[in-house]
Amino acid sequence: MSVYDETSDLSNERPHVVILGAGASLASFFDGDKNGLRLPLMNNLKDVCGLAEVLNKFGVDQDVANFEELYSDLYDSEREDVLRDIEIIISEYFSKLELPDNPTIYDLLVISLRPKDLIATFNWDPFLWQAIARNHRWIGTPNVAFLHGNVAVGFCEEDWKVGPNGTRCPVCSKRYQ
Predict the structure, then answer these.
(1) Number of domains within the chain
(2) Which domain holds residue 132?
(3) Which of 9, 11, 141, 167 yields a CA-CA distance of 20 to 30 A from 176?
C-alpha cells in the first residue's frame, strides 16, 4: 500500500486519545496569554498567582517549592481557612486567562479531532474550553475530560450535565458549580 493510499483510507473507526499536561499550555503560550498573563506550573504557581500575601497572613511556611506539596500539607493539616483563600485566588487568576485572537495550537488540536476522539487534560486553565467554544460551530468537537476540573467548566451533580461555569443546568436550572 502506498503512503497516499494508507493516509487516504479513513475506514479506521478507532478513536484517538490526546492527553494534555500543564506543559502544554506553557509551551503554547510561553510569553503569556492574550493579555500577557503568565502561565503557572506547580513549581512557580505561588509566585505567578500571587499567593505570598495570603500565605504570610496565615503564617504558612513558603519554603515548599511545589504547590501540590504545599496544598497537600495544608489539606492534611485541615487548614480550610487558608485553602479557601488560596482556591479563590487561583480560580480568579486562571479565569482571567484568554486565548489570543489568532489560531493557536489548541484550536488546531480541537479541529483536527473527531467527535469520537477524546482529549483528557489535567489543566485548570480555560484554553481548551475556549478553543472548543470558538470552533464548535464549524466542526463536531471531540469529547473532553477535565481530570482535575477546570475554571471554565461547571457541573450539575444532580443531572450530571456539564456547561460553561456560571451558567445554568438545562434540566434543573441550578447554576453549574
Answers:
(1) 2
(2) 3-34+101-164
(3) 141
